[in-house]
Amino acid sequence: MTADSAPRDVWVLVDHADGRSVRKITYELLGQAQALAGAAGGRVVAAALGAGIGGLAGDLGVHGADRVMLADAPVLERYTTDAYAAVLAPLLEEARPRLLLMGSTAWGRDLAPRIAARTGAGIVTDCSAVEIEDGRIVATRPVMTRKAIARVAFAADGLRIAVVLPNVLPPAPAVPGRTAETVAVPVTVDPGAVRTRVVEIRPLARETVPLTEADIIVAGGRGLKGPEHFALLDELAGALGAAVGSSRPPVDSGWVPHDYEIGQTGKTVNPQLYIACGISGAPQHQAGMSGARWIVAINRDPQAPIFQIASYGLVGDLFQIVPLLTAAVRRLKAAPQG
Amino acid sequence: MHVVVCVKHVPDTEAPIRIRGDGRGVEESGLNFVMNYYDEHAVEEGLRIKERAGGSVTVITAGPARAVEALRAALAMGADHAIHVQDPGLEALDHLGIARVLAAAIAPLPHDLVLCGKLATDDNASIVGPALAEYLGLPQATAVTALELGEGRATAHREVEGAVEVLEVTLPAVVTVERNINEPRYPSLPGIMKAKRTPITAKALADLGLAPDAAGGPHRVELVGLTPPPRRQPGRVIPGEPDAAVRELVRLLREEAKVL
Fold it and tell me: How many domains does chain B have?
Protein backbone atom coordinates (compact mmCIF):
# COMPACT_ATOMS: atom_id res chain seq x y z
CA MET A 1 0.00 0.00 0.00
CA THR A 2 1.44 3.36 -0.92
CA ALA A 3 1.90 5.42 2.18
CA ASP A 4 0.68 8.63 0.55
CA SER A 5 -2.80 7.46 -0.44
CA ALA A 6 -3.59 5.33 2.62
CA PRO A 7 -4.72 8.28 4.79
CA ARG A 8 -7.46 8.98 2.24
CA ASP A 9 -8.65 5.38 2.06
CA VAL A 10 -11.89 4.30 3.65
CA TRP A 11 -12.01 0.80 5.08
CA VAL A 12 -14.98 -1.49 5.47
CA LEU A 13 -14.99 -4.50 7.77
CA VAL A 14 -16.75 -7.27 5.87
CA ASP A 15 -19.62 -8.96 7.71
CA HIS A 16 -20.38 -12.34 6.23
CA ALA A 17 -22.29 -15.51 6.96
CA ASP A 18 -19.58 -18.13 7.55
CA GLY A 19 -17.68 -17.06 4.44
CA ARG A 20 -20.48 -18.25 2.16
CA SER A 21 -22.02 -14.89 1.45
CA VAL A 22 -21.57 -11.25 2.28
CA ARG A 23 -24.21 -9.77 4.58
CA LYS A 24 -26.39 -6.93 3.31
CA ILE A 25 -24.83 -4.46 5.78
CA THR A 26 -21.48 -4.91 4.01
CA TYR A 27 -22.93 -3.65 0.71
CA GLU A 28 -24.39 -0.67 2.58
CA LEU A 29 -20.99 0.09 4.11
CA LEU A 30 -19.30 -0.25 0.71
CA GLY A 31 -21.77 2.27 -0.72
CA GLN A 32 -20.99 4.73 2.06
CA ALA A 33 -17.26 4.08 1.71
CA GLN A 34 -17.39 4.85 -2.02
CA ALA A 35 -19.03 8.21 -1.35
CA LEU A 36 -16.51 9.13 1.36
CA ALA A 37 -13.41 7.81 -0.39
CA GLY A 38 -14.41 9.27 -3.72
CA ALA A 39 -14.69 12.75 -2.22
CA ALA A 40 -11.16 12.48 -0.83
CA GLY A 41 -9.51 10.69 -3.74
CA GLY A 42 -8.92 7.56 -1.66
CA ARG A 43 -9.66 3.91 -2.24
CA VAL A 44 -12.29 1.62 -0.79
CA VAL A 45 -10.56 -1.18 1.10
CA ALA A 46 -12.58 -4.16 2.33
CA ALA A 47 -11.06 -6.12 5.22
CA ALA A 48 -12.42 -9.66 5.35
CA LEU A 49 -11.59 -12.02 8.21
CA GLY A 50 -12.61 -15.67 8.35
CA ALA A 51 -11.73 -19.18 7.23
CA GLY A 52 -12.22 -20.27 3.62
CA ILE A 53 -13.45 -16.83 2.60
CA GLY A 54 -11.45 -16.35 -0.60
CA GLY A 55 -14.67 -16.65 -2.59
CA LEU A 56 -15.95 -13.35 -1.19
CA ALA A 57 -13.33 -11.18 -2.92
CA GLY A 58 -15.04 -11.20 -6.31
CA ASP A 59 -18.37 -10.07 -4.89
CA LEU A 60 -16.67 -7.32 -2.87
CA GLY A 61 -15.01 -6.01 -6.04
CA VAL A 62 -18.31 -6.02 -7.90
CA HIS A 63 -19.79 -3.96 -5.06
CA GLY A 64 -17.18 -1.25 -5.03
CA ALA A 65 -14.09 -2.47 -3.16
CA ASP A 66 -10.83 -1.40 -4.82
CA ARG A 67 -8.75 -3.63 -2.61
CA VAL A 68 -9.64 -6.65 -0.47
CA MET A 69 -7.47 -7.42 2.54
CA LEU A 70 -8.07 -11.13 3.06
CA ALA A 71 -7.20 -12.64 6.45
CA ASP A 72 -8.04 -16.28 5.85
CA ALA A 73 -7.06 -18.73 8.59
CA PRO A 74 -8.66 -21.56 10.59
CA VAL A 75 -8.32 -19.56 13.84
CA LEU A 76 -10.71 -17.00 12.32
CA GLU A 77 -13.41 -19.51 11.39
CA ARG A 78 -15.74 -18.28 14.13
CA TYR A 79 -15.78 -14.69 15.30
CA THR A 80 -13.93 -14.26 18.58
CA THR A 81 -13.05 -10.88 20.06
CA ASP A 82 -9.45 -11.82 20.79
CA ALA A 83 -8.52 -13.31 17.41
CA TYR A 84 -10.32 -10.70 15.32
CA ALA A 85 -8.90 -7.81 17.34
CA ALA A 86 -5.41 -9.33 17.12
CA VAL A 87 -5.64 -9.33 13.30
CA LEU A 88 -7.51 -6.09 12.69
CA ALA A 89 -5.83 -3.69 15.15
CA PRO A 90 -2.29 -4.00 13.71
CA LEU A 91 -3.65 -3.80 10.14
CA LEU A 92 -5.32 -0.49 10.95
CA GLU A 93 -2.33 0.88 12.79
CA GLU A 94 -0.14 0.12 9.82
CA ALA A 95 -2.44 1.38 7.08
CA ARG A 96 -3.89 4.37 9.04
CA PRO A 97 -6.98 4.76 6.81
CA ARG A 98 -9.12 7.85 7.09
CA LEU A 99 -12.06 5.89 8.46
CA LEU A 100 -13.11 2.32 9.22
CA LEU A 101 -16.79 1.50 8.75
CA MET A 102 -18.28 -1.44 10.62
CA GLY A 103 -21.86 -2.70 10.83
CA SER A 104 -23.86 -2.41 14.03
CA THR A 105 -24.30 -6.17 14.23
CA ALA A 106 -23.66 -8.56 17.12
CA TRP A 107 -19.97 -8.86 16.32
CA GLY A 108 -19.51 -5.31 15.05
CA ARG A 109 -20.74 -3.97 18.38
CA ASP A 110 -18.51 -6.44 20.22
CA LEU A 111 -15.36 -5.70 18.23
CA ALA A 112 -15.45 -1.98 17.42
CA PRO A 113 -15.04 -0.58 20.97
CA ARG A 114 -12.33 -3.12 21.69
CA ILE A 115 -10.36 -2.03 18.60
CA ALA A 116 -10.94 1.63 19.46
CA ALA A 117 -9.63 1.12 22.99
CA ARG A 118 -6.59 -0.75 21.70
CA THR A 119 -5.65 1.68 18.96
CA GLY A 120 -6.87 4.92 20.54
CA ALA A 121 -9.26 5.43 17.63
CA GLY A 122 -12.21 7.77 17.88
CA ILE A 123 -15.40 5.75 17.81
CA VAL A 124 -19.04 6.59 17.11
CA THR A 125 -21.62 3.80 17.29
CA ASP A 126 -25.17 3.44 15.91
CA CYS A 127 -24.55 5.90 13.09
CA SER A 128 -27.42 6.59 10.70
CA ALA A 129 -25.26 8.82 8.50
CA VAL A 130 -21.56 9.62 8.07
CA GLU A 131 -20.70 12.77 6.13
CA ILE A 132 -17.80 15.09 5.41
CA GLU A 133 -18.46 18.64 6.55
CA ASP A 134 -15.81 21.34 6.19
CA GLY A 135 -13.20 18.62 6.00
CA ARG A 136 -14.41 16.98 9.21
CA ILE A 137 -16.06 13.58 9.37
CA VAL A 138 -19.38 13.99 11.14
CA ALA A 139 -21.65 11.12 12.19
CA THR A 140 -25.35 11.32 12.98
CA ARG A 141 -26.89 9.01 15.56
CA PRO A 142 -30.16 8.74 17.50
CA VAL A 143 -29.85 9.07 21.30
CA MET A 144 -32.11 9.33 24.37
CA THR A 145 -34.70 6.82 23.17
CA ARG A 146 -34.65 8.60 19.79
CA LYS A 147 -35.88 11.76 21.46
CA ALA A 148 -32.81 13.54 20.11
CA ILE A 149 -30.44 13.21 17.18
CA ALA A 150 -26.77 13.75 17.99
CA ARG A 151 -24.18 14.95 15.52
CA VAL A 152 -20.70 13.88 16.52
CA ALA A 153 -17.47 15.02 14.85
CA PHE A 154 -14.32 12.91 14.72
CA ALA A 155 -11.00 14.53 15.61
CA ALA A 156 -8.95 15.86 12.70
CA ASP A 157 -6.20 13.30 13.20
CA GLY A 158 -5.83 9.69 14.26
CA LEU A 159 -7.86 6.59 13.53
CA ARG A 160 -11.65 6.73 13.33
CA ILE A 161 -14.26 4.00 13.56
CA ALA A 162 -17.93 4.49 12.66
CA VAL A 163 -20.33 1.68 13.53
CA VAL A 164 -23.28 2.03 11.17
CA LEU A 165 -26.88 0.88 11.70
CA PRO A 166 -28.05 -1.75 9.22
CA ASN A 167 -30.76 -1.04 6.64
CA VAL A 168 -30.31 2.75 6.73
CA LEU A 169 -27.89 3.44 3.88
CA PRO A 170 -28.41 2.43 0.26
CA PRO A 171 -26.26 -0.55 -0.78
CA ALA A 172 -23.47 -0.08 -3.31
CA PRO A 173 -24.72 -1.00 -6.77
CA ALA A 174 -23.28 -4.14 -8.34
CA VAL A 175 -21.02 -3.42 -11.30
CA PRO A 176 -20.54 -6.71 -13.14
CA GLY A 177 -16.97 -7.26 -14.22
CA ARG A 178 -15.54 -4.82 -11.67
CA THR A 179 -12.68 -6.42 -9.75
CA ALA A 180 -10.63 -5.66 -6.66
CA GLU A 181 -6.97 -6.24 -6.00
CA THR A 182 -6.65 -8.96 -3.34
CA VAL A 183 -3.98 -8.79 -0.66
CA ALA A 184 -3.42 -11.82 1.58
CA VAL A 185 -2.95 -10.82 5.20
CA PRO A 186 -0.65 -13.13 7.16
CA VAL A 187 -2.41 -14.41 10.30
CA THR A 188 -0.13 -15.19 13.22
CA VAL A 189 -2.68 -15.47 16.03
CA ASP A 190 -1.86 -18.15 18.59
CA PRO A 191 -5.10 -20.10 19.12
CA GLY A 192 -4.02 -20.61 22.75
CA ALA A 193 -4.20 -16.85 23.30
CA VAL A 194 -7.88 -16.70 22.30
CA ARG A 195 -9.78 -16.60 25.56
CA THR A 196 -13.26 -17.30 24.21
CA ARG A 197 -14.46 -20.36 22.35
CA VAL A 198 -17.66 -20.62 20.36
CA VAL A 199 -19.21 -23.87 21.57
CA GLU A 200 -22.30 -23.79 19.41
CA ILE A 201 -24.36 -21.64 17.04
CA ARG A 202 -28.06 -22.41 17.41
CA PRO A 203 -29.96 -21.03 14.43
CA LEU A 204 -33.36 -19.53 15.19
CA ALA A 205 -35.69 -21.77 13.26
CA ARG A 206 -38.24 -19.02 12.63
CA GLU A 207 -35.91 -16.44 11.27
CA THR A 208 -35.54 -16.28 7.52
CA VAL A 209 -34.37 -12.69 7.30
CA PRO A 210 -32.92 -11.12 10.48
CA LEU A 211 -35.24 -8.36 11.72
CA THR A 212 -32.47 -5.81 11.40
CA GLU A 213 -32.06 -6.59 7.69
CA ALA A 214 -35.72 -7.05 6.75
CA ASP A 215 -37.34 -4.75 4.17
CA ILE A 216 -40.77 -5.47 5.58
CA ILE A 217 -41.64 -6.21 9.21
CA VAL A 218 -44.97 -7.32 10.64
CA ALA A 219 -45.05 -6.71 14.39
CA GLY A 220 -47.57 -7.61 17.06
CA GLY A 221 -48.33 -6.10 20.45
CA ARG A 222 -50.57 -6.58 23.45
CA GLY A 223 -53.59 -6.41 21.14
CA LEU A 224 -52.81 -9.92 19.88
CA LYS A 225 -54.11 -11.19 23.24
CA GLY A 226 -52.14 -14.43 23.25
CA PRO A 227 -49.22 -16.36 21.76
CA GLU A 228 -51.42 -18.45 19.45
CA HIS A 229 -52.44 -15.36 17.51
CA PHE A 230 -48.91 -14.68 16.29
CA ALA A 231 -49.80 -17.27 13.65
CA LEU A 232 -51.92 -14.54 12.01
CA LEU A 233 -48.80 -12.40 11.69
CA ASP A 234 -46.74 -15.34 10.43
CA GLU A 235 -49.25 -15.77 7.61
CA LEU A 236 -49.20 -12.11 6.65
CA ALA A 237 -45.41 -12.10 6.85
CA GLY A 238 -45.27 -15.21 4.69
CA ALA A 239 -47.39 -13.52 2.03
CA LEU A 240 -45.22 -10.37 2.14
CA GLY A 241 -41.83 -12.05 2.49
CA ALA A 242 -41.52 -10.17 5.79
CA ALA A 243 -39.97 -10.83 9.19
CA VAL A 244 -42.09 -10.98 12.35
CA GLY A 245 -41.35 -8.91 15.44
CA SER A 246 -43.12 -7.66 18.52
CA SER A 247 -43.36 -4.82 20.99
CA ARG A 248 -42.36 -5.43 24.59
CA PRO A 249 -45.59 -6.72 26.22
CA PRO A 250 -45.74 -10.01 24.23
CA VAL A 251 -42.13 -10.70 25.28
CA ASP A 252 -42.81 -9.89 28.93
CA SER A 253 -45.89 -12.11 28.80
CA GLY A 254 -43.82 -14.97 27.43
CA TRP A 255 -45.77 -15.18 24.15
CA VAL A 256 -42.63 -14.78 22.02
CA PRO A 257 -38.90 -14.89 22.84
CA HIS A 258 -36.84 -11.75 23.43
CA ASP A 259 -35.26 -11.90 19.97
CA TYR A 260 -38.63 -10.72 18.58
CA GLU A 261 -38.55 -7.49 20.52
CA ILE A 262 -38.31 -4.16 18.72
CA GLY A 263 -37.81 -0.99 20.74
CA GLN A 264 -35.67 0.60 23.41
CA THR A 265 -35.05 -2.71 25.16
CA GLY A 266 -34.96 -4.74 21.97
CA LYS A 267 -33.80 -4.19 18.41
CA THR A 268 -33.64 -1.04 16.33
CA VAL A 269 -35.03 -1.67 12.86
CA ASN A 270 -35.19 0.44 9.70
CA PRO A 271 -37.39 -1.41 7.22
CA GLN A 272 -39.13 0.07 4.20
CA LEU A 273 -42.49 -1.00 5.59
CA TYR A 274 -43.50 -1.65 9.20
CA ILE A 275 -46.94 -3.05 9.93
CA ALA A 276 -47.84 -2.58 13.61
CA CYS A 277 -50.71 -4.84 14.69
CA GLY A 278 -52.26 -4.23 18.09
CA ILE A 279 -49.32 -2.05 19.14
CA SER A 280 -50.19 1.16 20.98
CA GLY A 281 -46.85 2.78 20.12
CA ALA A 282 -45.28 3.79 23.44
CA PRO A 283 -42.14 5.96 23.10
CA GLN A 284 -40.01 2.93 24.02
CA HIS A 285 -41.40 1.03 21.04
CA GLN A 286 -41.11 4.00 18.72
CA ALA A 287 -37.44 4.23 19.70
CA GLY A 288 -36.84 1.00 17.81
CA MET A 289 -39.02 1.48 14.74
CA SER A 290 -39.73 5.13 13.97
CA GLY A 291 -36.95 5.02 11.39
CA ALA A 292 -39.17 2.86 9.16
CA ARG A 293 -39.88 4.46 5.78
CA TRP A 294 -43.60 3.63 5.82
CA ILE A 295 -45.63 2.66 8.87
CA VAL A 296 -49.02 0.95 8.85
CA ALA A 297 -50.91 0.87 12.16
CA ILE A 298 -53.80 -1.49 12.85
CA ASN A 299 -55.35 -0.84 16.25
CA ARG A 300 -58.79 -0.74 17.89
CA ASP A 301 -58.01 2.46 19.79
CA PRO A 302 -58.11 5.58 17.60
CA GLN A 303 -56.23 7.46 20.36
CA ALA A 304 -53.24 5.05 20.29
CA PRO A 305 -49.97 7.02 19.87
CA ILE A 306 -48.97 4.76 16.98
CA PHE A 307 -51.44 6.67 14.77
CA GLN A 308 -49.41 9.84 15.38
CA ILE A 309 -46.51 8.38 13.40
CA ALA A 310 -48.30 5.98 11.06
CA SER A 311 -48.34 6.68 7.34
CA TYR A 312 -51.59 4.72 7.06
CA GLY A 313 -53.87 3.82 9.91
CA LEU A 314 -56.70 1.34 10.14
CA VAL A 315 -58.87 1.68 13.22
CA GLY A 316 -60.52 -1.64 13.94
CA ASP A 317 -60.24 -5.24 14.95
CA LEU A 318 -56.91 -6.71 13.91
CA PHE A 319 -58.39 -10.22 14.01
CA GLN A 320 -60.63 -9.15 11.15
CA ILE A 321 -58.22 -6.85 9.32
CA VAL A 322 -55.00 -8.89 9.31
CA PRO A 323 -56.52 -11.97 7.58
CA LEU A 324 -58.16 -9.68 5.02
CA LEU A 325 -54.82 -8.03 4.38
CA THR A 326 -53.09 -11.41 4.07
CA ALA A 327 -55.67 -12.52 1.51
CA ALA A 328 -55.36 -9.25 -0.42
CA VAL A 329 -51.56 -9.49 -0.55
CA ARG A 330 -51.77 -13.12 -1.72
CA ARG A 331 -54.16 -12.11 -4.49
CA LEU A 332 -51.86 -9.28 -5.51
CA LYS A 333 -48.79 -11.56 -5.62
CA ALA A 334 -50.68 -14.23 -7.54
CA ALA A 335 -51.94 -11.76 -10.14
CA PRO A 336 -49.81 -11.17 -13.21
CA GLN A 337 -47.83 -7.98 -12.69
CA GLY A 338 -47.97 -5.08 -15.06
CA MET B 1 -16.54 -15.11 43.46
CA HIS B 2 -15.93 -11.37 43.60
CA VAL B 3 -18.13 -9.47 41.18
CA VAL B 4 -17.80 -5.81 40.24
CA VAL B 5 -20.83 -4.20 38.57
CA CYS B 6 -20.59 -0.90 36.67
CA VAL B 7 -23.69 1.27 36.81
CA LYS B 8 -24.75 4.56 35.24
CA HIS B 9 -27.29 7.13 36.38
CA VAL B 10 -29.40 8.12 33.38
CA PRO B 11 -32.61 10.03 32.64
CA ASP B 12 -35.75 7.93 32.98
CA THR B 13 -36.66 6.87 29.44
CA GLU B 14 -40.35 7.65 30.17
CA ALA B 15 -39.62 11.33 30.63
CA PRO B 16 -39.71 13.92 27.85
CA ILE B 17 -36.41 15.75 27.43
CA ARG B 18 -35.53 19.37 26.71
CA ILE B 19 -32.44 20.02 24.63
CA ARG B 20 -30.26 22.78 26.07
CA GLY B 21 -30.08 26.08 24.23
CA ASP B 22 -26.50 25.42 23.16
CA GLY B 23 -27.43 21.98 21.86
CA ARG B 24 -24.61 20.41 23.88
CA GLY B 25 -26.82 18.40 26.19
CA VAL B 26 -30.22 18.16 27.82
CA GLU B 27 -31.67 20.27 30.62
CA GLU B 28 -31.22 18.22 33.77
CA SER B 29 -33.58 20.27 35.94
CA GLY B 30 -36.92 18.56 36.35
CA LEU B 31 -35.57 15.37 34.79
CA ASN B 32 -35.94 12.16 36.77
CA PHE B 33 -32.74 10.09 36.88
CA VAL B 34 -32.61 6.36 37.57
CA MET B 35 -30.12 3.51 37.40
CA ASN B 36 -29.65 2.52 33.75
CA TYR B 37 -32.19 -0.18 33.00
CA TYR B 38 -29.67 -2.77 31.76
CA ASP B 39 -27.44 -2.12 34.77
CA GLU B 40 -30.26 -3.31 37.05
CA HIS B 41 -30.01 -6.64 35.27
CA ALA B 42 -26.22 -6.61 35.76
CA VAL B 43 -26.62 -5.94 39.49
CA GLU B 44 -29.20 -8.72 39.73
CA GLU B 45 -26.88 -11.17 37.96
CA GLY B 46 -24.06 -10.25 40.34
CA LEU B 47 -26.29 -10.82 43.36
CA ARG B 48 -27.43 -14.21 42.07
CA ILE B 49 -23.82 -15.29 41.55
CA LYS B 50 -22.93 -14.23 45.08
CA GLU B 51 -25.94 -16.09 46.46
CA ARG B 52 -24.83 -19.28 44.71
CA ALA B 53 -21.06 -19.06 44.98
CA GLY B 54 -20.38 -16.66 47.85
CA GLY B 55 -18.03 -13.71 47.57
CA SER B 56 -19.02 -10.08 47.18
CA VAL B 57 -20.73 -7.60 44.89
CA THR B 58 -19.16 -4.16 44.49
CA VAL B 59 -20.95 -1.52 42.44
CA ILE B 60 -19.09 1.35 40.85
CA THR B 61 -20.05 4.45 38.95
CA ALA B 62 -18.13 7.35 37.42
CA GLY B 63 -20.42 10.33 37.37
CA PRO B 64 -21.67 13.52 39.00
CA ALA B 65 -22.90 13.88 42.60
CA ARG B 66 -26.45 12.78 41.71
CA ALA B 67 -25.10 9.41 40.46
CA VAL B 68 -24.78 8.29 44.07
CA GLU B 69 -28.49 7.45 43.78
CA ALA B 70 -27.70 4.67 41.31
CA LEU B 71 -25.23 3.24 43.83
CA ARG B 72 -27.81 3.48 46.66
CA ALA B 73 -30.33 1.66 44.47
CA ALA B 74 -27.83 -1.15 43.85
CA LEU B 75 -26.96 -1.35 47.54
CA ALA B 76 -30.67 -1.55 48.34
CA MET B 77 -30.94 -4.53 46.00
CA GLY B 78 -28.19 -6.22 48.03
CA ALA B 79 -24.77 -5.10 46.79
CA ASP B 80 -22.07 -5.09 49.50
CA HIS B 81 -19.81 -2.19 48.56
CA ALA B 82 -20.06 0.95 46.45
CA ILE B 83 -17.45 3.18 44.83
CA HIS B 84 -18.23 6.60 43.41
CA VAL B 85 -15.64 8.15 41.12
CA GLN B 86 -16.49 11.81 41.11
CA ASP B 87 -14.30 14.51 39.63
CA PRO B 88 -14.77 17.69 37.61
CA GLY B 89 -12.40 16.11 35.09
CA LEU B 90 -15.00 13.44 34.21
CA GLU B 91 -17.15 15.91 32.31
CA ALA B 92 -14.65 16.28 29.51
CA LEU B 93 -14.23 12.53 28.97
CA ASP B 94 -15.61 10.54 26.08
CA HIS B 95 -16.64 6.88 26.41
CA LEU B 96 -13.08 5.58 26.13
CA GLY B 97 -12.04 8.04 28.83
CA ILE B 98 -14.76 6.79 31.19
CA ALA B 99 -13.69 3.20 30.48
CA ARG B 100 -10.09 4.13 31.41
CA VAL B 101 -11.28 5.64 34.68
CA LEU B 102 -13.38 2.58 35.54
CA ALA B 103 -10.46 0.29 34.67
CA ALA B 104 -8.16 2.25 36.99
CA ALA B 105 -10.71 1.96 39.80
CA ILE B 106 -11.45 -1.75 39.26
CA ALA B 107 -7.89 -3.00 38.67
CA PRO B 108 -6.87 -2.94 42.37
CA LEU B 109 -10.12 -4.61 43.52
CA PRO B 110 -10.58 -8.38 43.65
CA HIS B 111 -12.58 -9.11 40.48
CA ASP B 112 -13.40 -12.55 39.11
CA LEU B 113 -16.11 -11.04 36.97
CA VAL B 114 -16.99 -7.51 35.87
CA LEU B 115 -20.60 -6.96 34.78
CA CYS B 116 -22.07 -4.05 32.83
CA GLY B 117 -25.39 -3.40 31.13
CA LYS B 118 -25.17 -3.95 27.37
CA LEU B 119 -25.71 -0.23 26.81
CA ALA B 120 -26.84 2.89 28.61
CA THR B 121 -30.25 4.15 27.56
CA ASP B 122 -29.18 7.80 27.40
CA ASP B 123 -26.50 7.71 24.72
CA ASN B 124 -26.91 4.12 23.48
CA ALA B 125 -23.19 3.85 22.81
CA SER B 126 -22.35 0.33 24.11
CA ILE B 127 -18.68 1.30 24.09
CA VAL B 128 -17.65 1.25 27.76
CA GLY B 129 -18.00 -2.51 28.40
CA PRO B 130 -15.64 -3.79 25.68
CA ALA B 131 -13.28 -0.82 26.15
CA LEU B 132 -13.12 -1.58 29.87
CA ALA B 133 -12.28 -5.21 29.05
CA GLU B 134 -9.43 -4.03 26.83
CA TYR B 135 -8.00 -1.68 29.46
CA LEU B 136 -8.24 -4.39 32.14
CA GLY B 137 -6.66 -6.91 29.77
CA LEU B 138 -9.63 -9.25 30.15
CA PRO B 139 -11.69 -11.27 27.67
CA GLN B 140 -15.28 -10.20 27.07
CA ALA B 141 -18.73 -11.50 26.26
CA THR B 142 -21.26 -8.85 25.20
CA ALA B 143 -25.07 -8.67 25.18
CA VAL B 144 -25.32 -11.90 27.14
CA THR B 145 -28.75 -13.49 27.65
CA ALA B 146 -27.68 -16.37 29.93
CA LEU B 147 -24.58 -16.87 32.03
CA GLU B 148 -23.38 -20.00 33.80
CA LEU B 149 -20.19 -20.02 35.85
CA GLY B 150 -17.84 -22.98 35.97
CA GLU B 151 -14.33 -23.56 37.24
CA GLY B 152 -12.19 -20.74 35.88
CA ARG B 153 -14.59 -20.16 33.02
CA ALA B 154 -18.14 -19.15 32.19
CA THR B 155 -20.60 -20.15 29.50
CA ALA B 156 -22.53 -17.28 27.95
CA HIS B 157 -25.39 -17.14 25.45
CA ARG B 158 -25.56 -14.22 23.02
CA GLU B 159 -28.19 -13.25 20.47
CA VAL B 160 -26.52 -12.88 17.10
CA GLU B 161 -28.17 -12.31 13.70
CA GLY B 162 -30.51 -15.25 13.19
CA ALA B 163 -28.97 -17.44 15.90
CA VAL B 164 -27.96 -17.87 19.51
CA GLU B 165 -24.22 -18.13 20.03
CA VAL B 166 -22.99 -20.25 22.95
CA LEU B 167 -19.62 -19.00 24.08
CA GLU B 168 -17.10 -20.16 26.66
CA VAL B 169 -14.98 -17.43 28.21
CA THR B 170 -12.11 -17.71 30.69
CA LEU B 171 -12.40 -15.86 34.00
CA PRO B 172 -11.87 -13.17 35.02
CA ALA B 173 -13.87 -11.55 32.24
CA VAL B 174 -16.04 -8.56 31.44
CA VAL B 175 -19.63 -9.52 30.60
CA THR B 176 -22.30 -7.09 29.39
CA VAL B 177 -25.89 -8.25 29.85
CA GLU B 178 -29.15 -8.20 27.93
CA ARG B 179 -32.43 -7.58 29.69
CA ASN B 180 -33.72 -11.15 29.41
CA ILE B 181 -30.82 -12.58 31.43
CA ASN B 182 -32.93 -12.24 34.61
CA GLU B 183 -35.73 -10.37 36.32
CA PRO B 184 -34.25 -7.81 38.75
CA ARG B 185 -35.54 -7.94 42.31
CA TYR B 186 -37.18 -5.02 44.03
CA PRO B 187 -35.19 -3.57 46.92
CA SER B 188 -36.47 -4.80 50.28
CA LEU B 189 -37.22 -2.39 53.10
CA PRO B 190 -34.28 -3.70 55.19
CA GLY B 191 -32.19 -3.41 52.03
CA ILE B 192 -33.15 0.23 51.64
CA MET B 193 -32.33 0.90 55.31
CA LYS B 194 -28.98 -0.86 54.96
CA ALA B 195 -28.19 1.06 51.76
CA LYS B 196 -28.57 4.33 53.65
CA ARG B 197 -26.01 3.23 56.24
CA THR B 198 -23.48 1.66 53.87
CA PRO B 199 -20.51 3.98 53.39
CA ILE B 200 -19.78 4.86 49.77
CA THR B 201 -16.12 5.07 48.86
CA ALA B 202 -15.42 8.32 47.03
CA LYS B 203 -12.55 8.52 44.58
CA ALA B 204 -11.21 11.44 42.61
CA LEU B 205 -9.16 10.97 39.44
CA ALA B 206 -5.99 11.79 41.38
CA ASP B 207 -6.79 8.96 43.84
CA LEU B 208 -6.74 6.59 40.88
CA GLY B 209 -3.39 7.90 39.71
CA LEU B 210 -5.01 9.70 36.78
CA ALA B 211 -4.41 13.30 35.88
CA PRO B 212 -7.66 14.85 34.62
CA ASP B 213 -6.25 15.50 31.17
CA ALA B 214 -4.45 12.15 30.96
CA ALA B 215 -7.52 10.10 31.88
CA GLY B 216 -9.25 10.58 28.59
CA GLY B 217 -6.28 10.95 26.36
CA PRO B 218 -6.66 13.31 23.45
CA HIS B 219 -10.25 13.96 22.44
CA ARG B 220 -11.18 11.59 19.67
CA VAL B 221 -14.80 12.62 19.16
CA GLU B 222 -16.78 15.74 19.96
CA LEU B 223 -20.51 16.36 20.19
CA VAL B 224 -21.44 18.99 17.61
CA GLY B 225 -24.99 19.27 18.81
CA LEU B 226 -28.32 17.68 19.64
CA THR B 227 -31.46 18.35 17.68
CA PRO B 228 -35.01 17.06 18.05
CA PRO B 229 -35.71 14.15 15.71
CA PRO B 230 -37.50 14.99 12.49
CA ARG B 231 -41.20 14.87 13.26
CA ARG B 232 -43.01 12.14 11.42
CA GLN B 233 -46.08 13.58 9.80
CA PRO B 234 -49.09 11.56 10.87
CA GLY B 235 -50.54 10.09 7.71
CA ARG B 236 -54.12 9.30 7.06
CA VAL B 237 -56.53 7.03 8.80
CA ILE B 238 -58.22 4.98 6.12
CA PRO B 239 -61.95 4.99 6.82
CA GLY B 240 -64.54 2.45 5.89
CA GLU B 241 -65.48 -1.15 6.57
CA PRO B 242 -62.52 -3.50 7.02
CA ASP B 243 -62.90 -5.00 3.55
CA ALA B 244 -62.88 -1.65 1.76
CA ALA B 245 -60.22 -0.17 4.04
CA VAL B 246 -57.86 -3.09 3.39
CA ARG B 247 -58.38 -2.74 -0.38
CA GLU B 248 -57.52 0.96 -0.14
CA LEU B 249 -54.47 0.20 2.05
CA VAL B 250 -53.13 -2.29 -0.47
CA ARG B 251 -53.67 0.22 -3.26
CA LEU B 252 -51.75 2.92 -1.35
CA LEU B 253 -48.92 0.55 -0.43
CA ARG B 254 -48.63 -0.37 -4.07
CA GLU B 255 -49.15 2.93 -5.85
CA GLU B 256 -48.02 5.56 -3.33
CA ALA B 257 -45.52 3.83 -1.06
CA LYS B 258 -44.47 1.41 -3.83
CA VAL B 259 -43.50 -1.23 -1.30
CA LEU B 260 -45.68 -4.06 -2.61
Answer: 2
Arithmetic mean of pLDDT, A4-26: 88
The superfamily in CATH containing domain A211-334 is: TPP-binding domain (3.40.50.1220)
Closest-CA residue to A141 (of B27, B122, B90): B122
| Cis? peptide before B172, omega within 30° of 0 | yes
Residue B232 has pLDDT above 90, yes or no: no
Helical ranges in chain A per DSSP H: 24-40, 56-62, 81-95, 106-119, 230-240, 248-252, 283-289, 306-309, 318-334
Query: Domain for residue B169, yes or no?
Result: yes
Q: Looking at the complex, report in whole angstroms how far the Cα of residue A312 sits from the nearest Cα belonging to chain B.
A: 5
The ipTM of this complex is 0.95
Chain B residues inside the 8 Å CB shell of A213? 161
Q: Which long-range contacts (CB under 8 A, 24 or more apart) does A138-143 make?
A: A138/B224, A141/B124, A142/A268, A142/A287, A142/A291, A142/B124, A142/B229, A143/B122, A143/B123, A143/B124, A143/B226
- Altogether, the residues listed in chain A come to a count of 338
Nearest to A144 among B26, B178, B246 (CB): B26
**Contact check, Cβ <8 Å, A118/B235:** no
Q: What is the DSSP letter of A98?
A: S
